[in-house]
């Protein structure tokens, strides 16, 4: 019975990761090859498709050099994949496997941009739409490609009151980051992880400590 659960949850993880990657890459390639950089399509007053690219982490954040960030992502993906494999061998809930799979798939989705987009696309500009080029002749080298973002939800657009120090009279937008499907999967997965899987989080900490001690 336990073996059957491991197999079924393993298959579920594989299907979910594959589905997220396909959806994420299809959206990104469609935007990359049909939008000029900075182009925006108004869907509703609180939802736009806005094509931007970034060198950083989720939601355009940047803390590291691009190459360092890409290598960090590869290490993180390897660690998460290893951990999922360990969890499948232990007592676990299917929901926990789903959450971990969402986080892993989102991370892989963004690293694929960094790994290959610079090799297979020419550069996007505000005046031209990018297209496919022969492999290796694109706008950047391996691991130096830019991540494609497109979802923009300015749910509240107003101005700061005049009495607010330094910001009075300036525009205020909530929610301002532009993100992609992979970012959304990572964020939802992390929120669910902290809300519903605190016990598993403690087990994760113990697993990491044991792994470090063996080294």
Automatic annotation (TrEMBL):
It is found in: Cell membrane. Pfam families: Peptidase_A8. One of its GO terms (molecular function) is aspartic-type endopeptidase activity. The keyword Cell membrane applies. The chain crosses the membrane at residues 7-27, 63-84, 96-120, 126-143, 172-197. InterPro entries: Peptidase_A8 (IPR001872). Keywords: Aspartyl protease, Cell membrane, Hydrolase, Membrane, Protease, Transmembrane, Transmembrane helix. Its main location: membrane. GO terms for cellular component: plasma membrane. GO terms for biological process: proteolysis. Pathway: Protein modification; lipoprotein biosynthesis (signal peptide cleavage). Its EC number is 3.4.23.36. The active site is at 149, 183. It is a multi-pass membrane protein. It is an enzyme of class 3 (hydrolase). It catalyses: Release of signal peptides from bacterial membrane prolipoproteins. Hydrolyzes -Xaa-Yaa-Zaa-|-(S,diacylglyceryl)Cys-, in which Xaa is hydrophobic (preferably Leu), and Yaa (Ala or Ser) and Zaa (Gly or Ala) have small, neutral side chains. PANTHER family: LIPOPROTEIN SIGNAL PEPTIDASE (PTHR33695). Belongs to the peptidase A8 family. This protein specifically catalyzes the removal of signal peptides from prolipoproteins. This is Lipoprotein signal peptidase. It comes from Segatella salivae DSM 15606.
């Amino acid at each position: 019975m336990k073996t059957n659960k491991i197999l079924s949850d393993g298959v579920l993880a594989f299907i979910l990761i594959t589905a997220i990657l396909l959806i994420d890459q299809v959206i990104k390639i469609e935007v990359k090859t049909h939008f000029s950089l900075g182009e925006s399509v108004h869907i509703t007053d609180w939802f736009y498709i806005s094509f931007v690219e970034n060198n950083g982490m989720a939601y355009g954040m940047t803390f590291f050099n691009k190459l360092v960030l890409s290598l960090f992502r590869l290490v993180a993906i390897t660690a998460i994949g290893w951990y999922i494999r360990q969890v499948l061998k232990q007592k676990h809930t299917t929901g926990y496997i789903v959450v971990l799979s969402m986080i892993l798939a989102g991370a892989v989705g963004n690293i694929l941009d960094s790994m290959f987009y610079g090799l297979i696309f020419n550069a996007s500009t505000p005046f031209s739409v990018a297209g496919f080029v022969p492999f290796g002749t694109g706008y950047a080298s391996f691991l130096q490609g830019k991540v494609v973002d497109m979802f923009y939800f300015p749910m509240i657009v107003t101005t700061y009151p005049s009495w607010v120090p330094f910001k009075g009279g300036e525009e205020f937008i909530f929610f301002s980051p532009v993100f992609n499907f992979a970012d959304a999967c990572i964020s939802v997965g992390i929120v669910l992880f902290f809300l519903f899987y605190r016990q598993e989080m403690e087990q994760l900490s113990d697993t990491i400590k044991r792994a470090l001690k063996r080294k």
